[in-house]
TrEMBL record:
Its cofactor is Mg(2+). This is Phosphomannomutase. Belongs to the phosphohexose mutase family. InterPro entries: A-D-PHexomutase_a/b/a-I, A-D-PHexomutase_a/b/a-I/II/III, A-D-PHexomutase_a/b/a-II, A-D-PHexomutase_a/b/a-III, A-D-PHexomutase_C, A-D-PHexomutase_C_sf, A-D-PHexomutase_CS, Alpha-D-phosphohexomutase_SF. Residues 399-454 form the Alpha-D-phosphohexomutase C-terminal domain. GO terms for cellular component: cytosol. The lineage of its organism: Bacteria, Pseudomonadati, Bacteroidota, Flavobacteriia, Flavobacteriales. NCBIfam families: Arch_GlmM (TIGR03990). GO terms for molecular function: magnesium ion binding; phosphoglucosamine mutase activity; phosphomannomutase activity. Residues 8-143, 173-264, 271-375 form the Alpha-D-phosphohexomutase alpha/beta/alpha domain. One of its GO terms (biological process) is UDP-N-acetylglucosamine biosynthetic process. It comes from the Bacteria. Keywords: Isomerase, Magnesium, Metal-binding, Phosphoprotein.
Length: 465
């Protein structure tokens, strides 16, 4: 079992021993650290407000109760969204004029995990310095709770998924008329979390016929919740069986988005951002950003529309920072995360759905035909489990030395750009693994490159003992 503390929040498995797992004690300590940091940041402000929302995980209600009561004990008022999505909370924070927000979700991790994802007053993730300060406060455990006359109050507001949908549908580039005229039939896999509430509701507002699959928000994930091809056989079969136009898959907190073509094949999670960017840039030319583990296809699409492309370090906060620096029109991550600043600076599957539907409706082609119109790259995403004996930094340094003659970037692990393909090696911030991402002109070549690199890493591990 595992507890991972990072600048982006605290994530761990439920149960077990405090300090080793996400127990009630760890939850309270970290929530208190966040509340204390908020009070530091807002000295002199009489009353603070925090928005809290959660995905449908089995542990969500317990973790939510602990977090809310801890913050009210610090004198902070709470807007409780209850079942929600990550982008919904991000949208709610500025609409509520709140001082921060917490999303209770472990994203794509299995059901035994949960996490506290922390937001600032803009509804955006904290930067490295802010996250580091919260870790310091958690370690110090010097919390000053309020007296009985100044406890925070809790206001419940379960309307925010609908409010979020309203905000999405107000976006100028959403072609609701074309979508409604197209008469789409879509299968939705909500992995029995809050996507099963939000995505069908959004589609129904647009006149799309929905066949739901795993849309009961009970937290019992029917398959591995990471939206990868090997986990999505059920929806692939159902799309074909129902003769649907395509399928939509989201992760438990609805910030990642993947599509299934009408023939049951994966559209490719990397191409979610590519398609949405193609549509946005065709209407509003400009710059794009993704992280350096994302496909070269976005660079190609940006060039097609006369814009520039830049790659950031992995992590949503890094993508957002570079998007702001370059005034990017759209950006995100190759894991199916769409960031469209016209609404907010956060990955948002609801925004991705409406941009994709608008593109498809205007082009009036099949999803498989749309995919075939884009540059053809194939990616392999593998990982190496870590053990305490492995010096990860030494391994990455060894790979950097081995390929010193190639085009290298070390701003985030080691990325090696070859002429026809690339490999990106990095230590995960959320799991005890090294991620090995490769991309090439064929799946076989991408897999072979990944296997070659993994073999070389294993050789380095053996040499270094």
């Amino acid at each position: 079992m595992t507890l991972i503390k990072s600048i982006s929040g605290i994530r761990g498995t439920i149960g077990g021993v405090p300090g080793d797992n996400l127990t009630p004690i760890d939850t309270v300590k970290f929530a208190a650290a966040y509340g204390t940091w908020l009070k530091e940041e807002n000295r002199g402000k009489e009353k603070l407000k925090v928005v809290i929302g959660r995905d449908a995980r089995i542990s969500g209600e317990m973790i939510q109760g602990l977090v809310i009561q801890t913050l009210t004990g610090l004198g902070i008022d709470i807007v409780k969204l209850d079942l929600s999505t990550t982008p919904t909370v991000e949208v709610a924070v500025p609409l509520e004029h709140a001082d921060g927000g917490i999303i209770l979700t472990a994203s794509h991790n299995p059901k035994q995990w949960n996490a506290l994802k922390l937001l600032n007053h803009k509804g955006e993730f904290l930067n490295a310095a802010q996250g580091a300060r919260i870790l310091e406060l958690a370690a110090e455990e010097k919390f000053d709770f309020t007296d009985v006359d100044h406890l925070g109050k809790v206001t419940r507001n379960e309307a925010y998924i609908d409010i979020h949908i309203d905000e999405v549908l107000k976006l100028p580039l959403v072609n609701a008329k074309a979508i409604k005229s197209a008469g789409f039939h879509v299968v939705v896999d909500g992995v029995n979390s809050t996507g099963g509430i939000a995505i069908p509701r959004l589609l129904e507002r647009l006149g799309v016929h929905v066949t739901p699959l795993y849309c009961e928000p009970n937290g019992h994930f029917p398959h591995n919740p990471e939206p990868l091809k090997e986990h999505l056989t059920d929806i692939s079969e159902l799309v074909v069986k129902k003769k649907a136009d395509f399928g939509i898959v989201v992760d438990p907190d609805v910030d990642r988005l993947a599509f299934i073509s009408e023939d049951g094949e994966m559209f490719g999670e990397e191409y979610t951002l590519v398609a949405c960017a193609d549509y946005v840039l065709s209407k509003t030319p400009g710059n794009t950003v993704s992280n350096m583990s994302s496909s070269r296809a976005l660079r190609d699409i940006a060039g097609k529309h006369g814009g520039s492309y830049q790659a950031s370090a992995v992590g949503e906060v890094n993508v957002v920072a570079l998007m702001k620096d370059t005034e990017a029109i759209i950006g995100g991550e190759g894991n199916g995360g769409i960031i469209y600043p016209e609404l907010h600076y956060g990955r948002d599957a609801l925004v991705g759905v409406v941009l994709f539907l608008s593109l498809l409706a205007e082009k009036n082609i099949k999803v498989s035909e749309l995919r075939a119109s884009y540059p053809s790259y194939f990616m392999s995403k593998k990982k190496i489990e870590l053990t305490p004996q492995i010096d990860v930094d030494a391994i990455l340094k060894g790979m950097e030395e081995k390929y010193r003659g190639e085009e290298l970037s070390t701003i985030d692990g080691v990325k090696i750009d070859f002429a026809e393909n690339w490999v990106h090696l990095r230590k995960s911030n959320t799991e005890p693994i090294i991620r090995v991402y490769t991309e090439a002109k064929s799946q076989e070549e991408a897999n072979a490159l990944a296997d070659k690199i993994i073999s070389e890493i294993e050789d380095l591990v053996a040499v270094n003992g």
